[in-house]
């Protein structure tokens, strides 16, 4: 079985964020980093080459494949700011309707820039997602 590419690394989160382009995406990345750190109480850590993650959990699929991933995370990519904060929890769709301009896919939330959204709604979504992660995968 192939090894998962998204593993925790020793890469500096600050250095990663310093290299993000364009400058607005870098600023948005720093804002999201502080927001998720405040919500989780965890220090940010790089997962793979481009995901900033907070906390971790272990999972095993029905197929037997298992791994470890961050509880919440984000990636300030060139096309979008991608947040790994969607859980499918009750009420999530209502919050997404109030969030502002965004797209979704699986557990991902895609935002062009933070100025397009309501940060208080984003915080509520992230808090709900963390609560759902803690319910499904209780912290050790």
TrEMBL record:
Which residue intervals define the domain YdhG-like in the entry? 26-128
What Pfam families would the database entry show?
DUF1801
| Protein's name according to its UniProt entry | YdhG-like domain-containing protein
Give the source species. Answer: Sphingomonas turrisvirgatae
């Amino acid at each position: 079985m192939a090894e998962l590419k998204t593993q925790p690394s020793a890469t500096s989160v600050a250095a990663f964020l310093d290299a993000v382009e364009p400058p607005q995406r870098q600023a948005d990345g720093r804002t999201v980093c502080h927001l998720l750190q405040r919500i989780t109480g965890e220090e940010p850590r790089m997962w793979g080459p481009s995901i900033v993650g907070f906390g971790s959990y272990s999972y095993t699929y029905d197929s037997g494949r298992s791994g470890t991933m961050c509880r919440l995370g984000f990636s300030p990519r060139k096309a979008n700011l991608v947040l790994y904060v969607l859980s499918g929890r009750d009420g999530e769709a209502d919050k997404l309707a109030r969030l502002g301009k965004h797209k979704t896919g699986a557990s991902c939330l895609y935002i062009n820039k933070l100025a397009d959204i309501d940060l208080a709604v984003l915080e509520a979504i992230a808090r709900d997602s963390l609560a759902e992660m803690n319910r499904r995968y209780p912290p050790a």
